[in-house]
């Protein structure tokens, strides 16, 4: 091969960085054959404690900024995470005329508009397949395979930690805290798991998917966000008995009222394929007017799976150094704002669990409140009272209602003396529209 | 935009051709934004009966060869099917320096080695995302997203007609001929459905997937091939009662003995996601050493879904007119033969249904034959005799055994006077290795 190697700088040598270095080393011949040029790790940015790994012939620097300034580097791979140093680093690399590959969803969600615009001006590529759903090629599918589609919806299980926790709670009737501790011990959850639990991580990824799907600018605050911390094993069980599984979904949907973007625990009919995606797996459904519905399932995290996506981006750059279309599908300057539906106006079917006094007339009072607000009941489950408690759990599935109508109804219902103030409320999505 | 339009010739105006023309017209603005240049249908090849459609400003010719010779055409889209005219057409287009997009799996499976080599020499692209699994981006996933993986296996439901028939037989207990007639009435099956039924169509697609997965030359005759015509509703029912679904799968697997390539009805554990892919949907599982297992599910046929993939190829060409890597992942000259495992040596678990005389000692005779050949039994189902028949059905699931060992055992068993000569035999795949 006469083409000169693609010199790659790897910033950050955690599990993904090390896996990337190993893959590029072990697949050297295959990647040369596939790309027409060598993919060479020429410079590694590693903190003190990581400088003693075997990085082959690569230079090793402790200051990652040195990698962005290295004139021999063609592509900078950002795997340090966070949104401060990583931001400065990528900006510098772009200014230095280098392509960028990153797995950093928070950074892309927060600074992607600016960074993609900078890259386009500089004539370099910025790629982030690994930032959403790990090894699943969902960025490429939206950006390239569905380029000729009007996309109406993207919905997915895009946080593996959350899905692991819900799966364990649901299949083994375990409590949230108990499973979370195990997830941390297994390395699935961070020491500070807040972003996995409260939906922040999924919201970052959803913002990226929505931008690619609908051609809108990235907006980190756009998704309405609800975590899994309040899901109880009891609700998982009721949902199962009514034919549903509960998954923590990110949903971005084009509607007549605007774009819905939301992250929340969701009841899904058990016969829907995505309902069966368990454990740390991720899955993304995409609907387009031409292709119909696609479902992609695979590992959403893990060093090697994420590195597989990082390397795919590197191969794309090696094959198309002149660029292969805009990072977000359309040029940054052509991304166009669309109205967002405020969360209180987002309609869906609902799962409601109330606790009521075990006395006649309660059910009639509840259904009257719902009827007054045009909320119709799809099905109802009333369990016998816990012995001696005098309290009965009442579980309802409703037809479509906006969130504000639903929460107003629940305020009125819980103001009835017969119904306790604590209740559970989750959205139901049949994905049949 | 200053770039000149990409002039596209559409050869063949059946459902996929018309859908492609409509998408390129309706998405004109979006595609310009995504590609940086207009995607323009400049020439249409239509037989006499199709010349009166509205093709906008495009020239219309009855001789498709005129499109390959048109100096204004940049990309020729071949949608006429078959392997004679289509072959000449694509060869001519390449010789004329045009890129080629095709949905023709038979052509790629049969002539792809030559055509991709010609295209590489001529410096043009040949792309065929639509040739396998319709709207599912499996070609791109193997060629690009998994470029850094050693692929160990590709397995999928890659013929929608066959899957529709098996699904109807299984869920509604209908007979094969009955469902086939309906599939033809619905337009799912061709007037001559032979290739859908006997596995030929799936074998063509599998040959393409295997080449991309393992870097081997295309070989149309490599897959061992068994159709769905001999699957009985009875066997679907027995399989279900043992926790399995029967799917017509194409499987290409890297083993220590070489590459297995096979197309056949397969028992799959019902909890495996692909077992729940019903109707005309397609699904492909891919396993790679870095990414692990990916599953892609979506429409395997239909005008718009197939056209979605054709248009994705066109956008890729518009974005990367200079090429974006070899059509089969590695350059045609670097594809490298690997040994194929002959079908009689391919080992798997097996489903066997025998009909035996309802008398003592039969079971012992059967199990003795199997034991003598080291075939161990995983589970067994013995049904009561049909009243007055004196015959009992015996259903066995075995552990791993090569096909030749299994068929030899069955010859010996059916030679026992107590067992009828007719039996059912299907492979079982747990996909858990």
Molecular structure report:
2 copies of one chain form a homodimer. With 433 residues, chain A is an alpha/beta fold. Chain A has 3 domains: 6-135 and 305-334, 3-Layer(aba) Sandwich (Rossmann fold); 141-299, 2-Layer Sandwich (Dihydrodipicolinate Reductase, domain 2), CATH 3.30.360.10; 346-428, Alpha-Beta Plaits. Helices cover 36% and strands 25% of the residues of chain A. Chain A is built from 14 helices and 17 strands. In chain A, the strands form 2 sheets. In chain A, strands 7, 8, 9, 10, 11, 12, 13, 14, 15, 16 and 17 form an 11-stranded mixed sheet that branches. In chain A, helix 1 packs across helix 12 (303-319). The longest helix of chain A is centred in the N-terminal third of the chain and has 18 residues, at 105-122. The first copy, chain A, is elongated and about 80 Å long. Chains A and B meet through helix 1, helix 2, helix 6, strand 12 and helix 12 of A and helix 1, helix 2, helix 6, strand 12 and helix 12 of B.
Radius of gyration of chain A: 24 Å
Helix content of chain A: 25-40%
Name the CATH superfamily assignment of the largest domain in chain A. Answer: NAD(P)-binding Rossmann-like Domain
* Helix-and-strand structural type of chain A: alpha/beta
Q: Which two chains have the most extensive interface, and how many residues on each?
A: A-B, 62 and 62 residues
CATH top level class name of the largest domain in chain A: Alpha Beta
CATH fold-level name of the largest domain in chain A: Rossmann fold
Percentage beta strand of chain A = 15-25%
Provide a count of the helices of chain A.
14
Instruction: Please tally the β strands of chain A and state the result.
Output: 17
- Overall pLDDT level of chain A: 95
């Amino acid at each position: 091969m006469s083409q000169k190697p693609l010199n790659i700088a790897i910033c950050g040598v955690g599990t993904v960085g090390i896996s990337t270095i190993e893959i590029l080393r072990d697949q050297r011949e295959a990647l040369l054959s596939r790309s027409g040029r060598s993919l060479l790790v020429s410079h590694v940015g590693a903190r003190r404690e990581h400088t003693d790994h075997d990085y082959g012939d690569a230079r090793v620097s402790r200051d990652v900024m040195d990698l962005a300034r290295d004139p021999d580097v063609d592509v900078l791979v950002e795997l340090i995470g966070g949104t401060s140093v990583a931001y400065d680093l990528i900006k510098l690399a772009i200014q230095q005329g280098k392509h960028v590959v990153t797995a950093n969803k928070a950074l892309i969600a927060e600074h992607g508009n600016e960074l993609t615009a900078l890259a386009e001006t500089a004539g370099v590529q910025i790629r982030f397949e690994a930032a959403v759903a790990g090894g699943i090629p969902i960025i490429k599918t939206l950006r390239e395979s569905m380029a000729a589609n009007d996309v109406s919806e993207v919905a997915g299980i895009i946080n593996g930690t959350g899905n692991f926790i819900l799966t364990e709670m649901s299949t083994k009737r375990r409590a949230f805290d108990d499973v979370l501790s195990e997830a941390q011990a297994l390395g699935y959850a961070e020491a500070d798991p807040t972003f996995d639990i409260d939906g922040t991580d999924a919201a970052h990824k959803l913002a990226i998917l929505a931008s690619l799907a609908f051609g809108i600018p990235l907006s980190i605050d756009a998704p309405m966000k609800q975590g899994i911390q309040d899901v109880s094993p009891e609700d998982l069980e009721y949902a199962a008995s009514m034919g549903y599984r509960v998954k923590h979904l990110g949903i971005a949907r084009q509607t007549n009222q605007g774009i819905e973007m939301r992250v929340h625990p969701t009841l899904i009919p058990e016969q829907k394929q995505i309902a069966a995606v368990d454990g740390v797996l991720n899955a993304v459904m995409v609907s387009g007017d031409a292709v119909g519905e696609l479902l992609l399932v695979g590992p959403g995290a893990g060093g090697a799976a994420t590195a597989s996506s990082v390397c795919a981006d590197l191969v794309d750059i090696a094959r198309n150094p002149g660029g292969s279309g805009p990072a977000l599908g359309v040029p940054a300057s052509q991304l166009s704002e669309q109205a967002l539906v405020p969360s209180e106006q987002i309609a869906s079917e609902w799962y409601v669990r109330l606790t009521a006094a075990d006395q006649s007339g309660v059910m009639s009072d509840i259904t009257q409140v719902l009827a007054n607000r045009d909320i119709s009941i799809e099905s109802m489950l009333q369990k016998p009272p816990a012995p001696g408690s005098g309290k009965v759990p009442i579980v309802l599935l409703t037809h479509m209602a906006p969130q504000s109508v639903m929460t107003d109804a629940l305020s009125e219902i819980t103001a009835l003396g017969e119904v306790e103030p604590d209740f559970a409320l989750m959205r139901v999505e049949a994905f049949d529209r």
